[in-house]
Amino acid sequence: MPLRYVLAACLAALLLTSCQQEGPRPESPEAAAPAAGAAGEAPAPDRQSDAGAGNAEYPTLVVTTLDGDRYELADRRGRWVVVNFWATWCAPCLKEMPELSALDAMREHVEVIGLAYEDTDADTLRAFLDKHPVAYPVAIVDTYDPPRDFPTPRGLPLTCLVAPDGRLVKTFLGPVTAAELEDAIAAAGGPAPGRPG
């Protein structure tokens, strides 16, 4: 096998694992289950998965944003909602933030909520967002008690697409583009990219 293919494969693997957490929490069911795969290795996570990736087909989410507002997913019925788990230390997360912000600002039928999945405080996160502003609301979630109806992030970024009826339709592990989200919306019965909602 040519060296360039080996190097490309190594680079791809490095990018996918760059924002992986150190491992599951001891109290999680995944921690008690033995790893599957060749030679005891855990299988690589899928880049995308269909509905059912979370704990609920119709997830709930109630958080307080950094602005002090109550954000409730149920109040967003009739819109596509992008739920993005991210962290300030995650380079791929930071790279996708401007695209998610543009999607939120430019598409009337799409709304983004950022969930900071890290041990930080509101003042530190506000200072970070002053340097990396986004158009969508951001809330801090407890890494030891993340929203139960969504997949527990085993790597970041993790993005979940919720349909206007409240159904979880797609989950992306790793960075996602606005184009990929719009294609997923169209595939799930929403408007085609570039069309009003």
What would you say this structure looks like, in words?
By secondary structure, the chain is α/β, with parallel strands linked by helices. The chain has a single domain, classed as Glutaredoxin (3-Layer(aba) Sandwich). 28% of the residues lie in helices and 20% in strands. It has five helices and eight strands. The chain has a six-stranded mixed sheet with strand order 1-8-7-4-5-6, with helices on one face. The longest helix is centred in the middle third of the chain and has 16 residues. It is globular, with a radius of gyration of 17 Å. The termini are far apart. The N terminus is likely disordered. Its main location: other. It comes from Luteimonas granuli.
Note the topology:
Blueprint: H1 3-17, H2 29-32, E1 48-50, E2 62-64, E3 70-72, E4 80-86, H3 91-106, E5 110-117, H4 122-131, E6 138-141, E7 158-162, E8 168-173, H5 178-187
Parallel strand pairs: 4-5, 5-6
Antiparallel strand pairs: 1-8, 2-3, 4-7, 7-8
GO cellular component, one term: cell envelope
GO molecular function: antioxidant activity; disulfide oxidoreductase activity
Signal peptide: 1-21
